[in-house]
Amino acid sequence: MELLFARNELNEKPKKVKIDKIVEELKELGEKIFYFDKDNSHKDMMALVDGLEGEGFNVYFREVKYGLAEDEYMYEVHAL
């Protein structure tokens, strides 16, 4: 499954990443905070959280609002 990282600029396309790559990076670093684009489905984000917890990580997940409009948010995943 592929997820989309959060955009740095509103007009650019989000970069894709596979869950396996995220798990590899976490095993290497031990902990990291990832920001994902709002275009990811909530179901996919929950699958990521479940997958990381299955690998033995503690995961904190939330939506981060960065503006007043309803669609101005991103997902934050902090894995330890």
Automatic annotation (TrEMBL):
<protein>
    <recommendedName>
        <fullName>HP0268 domain-containing protein</fullName>
    </recommendedName>
</protein>
<dbReference type="InterPro" id="IPR040748">
    <property type="entry name" value="HP0268"/>
</dbReference>
<dbReference type="Pfam" id="PF18618">
    <property type="entry name" value="HP0268"/>
</dbReference>
<feature type="domain" description="HP0268">
    <location>
        <begin position="1"/>
        <end position="80"/>
    </location>
</feature>
